[in-house]
Amino acid sequence: MSRVLSGIQPSGVLHLGNYLGALRRWVQRQDVDDAYFCIVDLHALTLDIEPEALRSQTLDAAASYLAAGLDPDRAVLFVQSHVPEHTSLSWLLECTASYGELLRMTQFKDKGKGQASVRAGLLTYPVLMAADILVYDAQRVPVGDDQRQHIELARNLAIRFNGRYGETFVVPAADIPDVGARIMDLQQPTKKMSKSTSTPQGLINLTDSPDEIARKVRRAVTDTDNEVRYDTEAKPGISNLLEILASATGAGPDELADRFSDYGSLKGAVAEAVIELLRPVRESYEELSSDPGTVRAALAKGAEKAQSVAGPVLARAQDAVGLLK
Ligand code: AQP
Question: What is the 3-state secondary structure (H, E, C) of 73-126?
Fold first, then answer.
């Protein structure tokens, strides 16, 4: 059994990209792996967020985890800030990372662009993410393609720390799917679908009704030549729809392209597949959102278990750097 760790920011309602790139795969791993999945609430503070929104979205994200099929008896589900070992380790890793390597993070450049004042946390949160992973001795990190660079940083920090202070951390590896690793915005198909930067029409939320899903897919931006072909450079909109359909059905995007002779029929098939894929998640989410007690109980149990693993790893790292016991 390998130890896996991953998380999602409660920076908005979870969307189809979060589901296909992360959540759905976590559910598949929970019986096979020693699985730890958190809601990374501290990461959400790197951008502007109202305190009430952060609180309610954290609970909503946890309800989405359960609705997607994660089971607190088979995986450790918790909120990052409930386990303070993450932030304690993060400081040791900040003193391992260099300013230059953090400046090179593309998410920092993308999210900081156009902001009058960029929070220091936006620069340093990839280090906190490294701490999220390393503090559990995680071997694998199932994520979407946008997190590849951050996992590389976590690996580099683990290797550098081990080199400087002696073997302390497990060096983790990214686990990125072949299909569904980068679901694009339906309105701007050259940009990834994102909680914080997509418009409502560009996103399919896990809570969207079948009608909303059908409308958003029908209005998805394509091109004008009406030829269904998988070509992410020349036809990003159609390729994104094929990728979504491939991820929902298990067939390959090229093979699917051959089955459709026009955009209308492709869009109809995508809408139907997504509606059926998300139907059980939405139904279960609706039940859970009226039962916050169940969600909170799952998180409390998870935090206790998580802390029992994170505590000794943090102590090992503190000892390694020379902090007085
Ligand atoms: N569009 C996507 N396609 C596939 N996977 C995706 N993920 C995110 N967007 C897509 C994966 O979902 C997990 C959680 O991501 P996150 O919420 O922690 O942060 P993010 O990657 O920055 O996702 P968002 O939606 O864009 O959030 P905001 O807008 O708050 O930054 C990760 O495994 C990610 O790869």
Answer: CCCEEEEHHHCCHHHHHHHHHHCCCCHHHHHCCHHHHHHHCCCCCCCHHHHHHH
